[in-house]
Amino acid sequence: MNGNGYSAYQSTKIDTADQGRLILIAYDVAIKHCKISLDYFEGYHLIEERAKHLMKAQDAIGELMGALKMETGEIAQNLHRLYEYMLHRLVEANVQSQKPYVEEVIGHLESLRTAWNQAIRNVKQLAAGPAPQPTNATAENQTKNFAISG
């Protein structure tokens, strides 16, 4: 597949993604670029590349901040403060050449991504309703087809 076809596919994939999936994508982008930036902390000549990846991570965190519905209450406000903190740490990491700051942000992002992923799964399960329970007839048929060999 040529580059333009792949780009169009990726764009369509994002355009049709639900809100939960978009949040996970933003976390993935932030985590990816934070991890890439870790390779560019050794040497003055690598500052530009490091800054480029940290800016991409900051952009993704900015998208996460923009997705918050602040009117929903305390959780959104706490997440907003945590995102602000992470943005500040990434700026400090770049200016002060502090790799541990980026590692700290990665830890926060990974924890939050895991929590969001679980929350999205829970919401989808609730929306789908309870799983159908097997009827007695189904259970009896499964028992009849079960044989013990020995």
Please describe the topology of this protein.
Blueprint: H1 3-15, H2 19-37, H3 47-67, H4 74-96, H5 99-128, H6 136-144
Helix pairs in contact: 2-3, 2-5, 3-4, 4-5
Short recap of the structure:
By secondary structure, the protein is mainly α.
As residue ranges, the low-confidence spans are 12-16, 142-150
Which word captures the global form?
Answer: elongated
Report the total helices: 6
Number of strands: 0
Q: Please indicate the percent range of residues in DSSP E strands (runs of 2 or more).
A: under 5%
What structural class results from the helix and strand content? mainly alpha
Question: What is the straight-line distance between the termini?
Answer: 54 Å
Q: Give me the strand/helix succession.
A: HHHHHH
Helix content: over 70%
- What is the gyration radius calculated from CA atoms? 22 Å
The chain-level mean pLDDT equals 84
Largest sheet: none
Walk me through what this model shows.
This protein is mainly alpha-helical. It is 77% helix and 0% strand. The chain is built from 6 helices and no strands. The chain has helices spanning 3-15, 19-37, 47-67, 74-96, 99-128, 136-144. Helix 2 (19-37) runs antiparallel to helix 3 and helix 3 (47-67) runs antiparallel to helix 4. The termini are far apart. Residues 12-16 and 142-150 have low confidence and may be disordered.
